[in-house]
Amino acid sequence: MESKPRVNRYEFNDPFTGSYFYFTNDLARDLEKVLSNPTANRIFWNTGKGSFGFRCDDKNVVLRENEFCTLTALNYLEVPDNDQKIAAIAFNREFYCIRDHDHEVSCNGILFYGAQDFSVLKFPPADIVPFQKLTDLFMKEFQECDSLHGEMLVSLLKILIIRLTRIGRNQITAIQGDNQSIEIIRKYNLLVEENFRKWKQISEYSFILNISSKKLSELFRIAKLDPPLQTIHKRVILEAKRMLLFSLKSINEISDELGFEDASHFSKLFKKLTGKSPSKFRSQKN
After folding, report:
1. Which of 2, 30, 63, 232 fits a disulfide with 52 by CB distance 3.0 to 4.6 angstroms?
2. Is the pLDDT of residue 211 over 90?
3. Range of 104's domain?
4. 58, part of any domain
């Protein structure tokens, strides 16, 4: 009988701080561990030749060769049995908080919280080998395990996130190279993530960004992205879908939690964006 290939699984836990980091080069054989921490952010990337499918919230996701995606603790994941070679990293905010350290890696609004939409991104050919070498460094570091082990893992994770963020920035091809505009878009997306429950108007966000609503809308149009108002609406509806699918809250409770004064306004927006009423969407979830 052919022996199974060795699976590299590496875990860092600090019981005093609650820090958690996990790396595997074979998600299929280590899925339970990768998904075990409900507060972890995750990165999946397809290192094999075929395709890998799974479900994220209400969407079917497919990762093809050399494609990756980033996931937060907010995402609900259903990952079927699959022999495809997928590498994965999981880490919680105690290990490295991407919100508190946004000034270091600038990934929020591009990769994680506040991204315009759930994205599957592809590694450019020139980045594949350097990225493989970086994952090798993660595995080598677990052979050291000295007093600097945790700090070294954090440093490697930061390098990884910065590399992925650069790839994500380059996906905004219409304004590629316009770093100032990309930064405004990134900050807007992050503000929406943080405030979509209470702020529903573009003007509330443009004020914080010190830019007119008209100029902000024009910037998104030039970048060939969803209009800013649609970005707000889509984030509201995404949260509504999560609560309809994965909670027992009533539609009125969901409406209140999402900042609507009247449940009918919520239902109208939901149907406009999804084509279904909230109650019909919930009843068809299976």
Report:
1. 63
2. yes
3. 9-171
4. yes
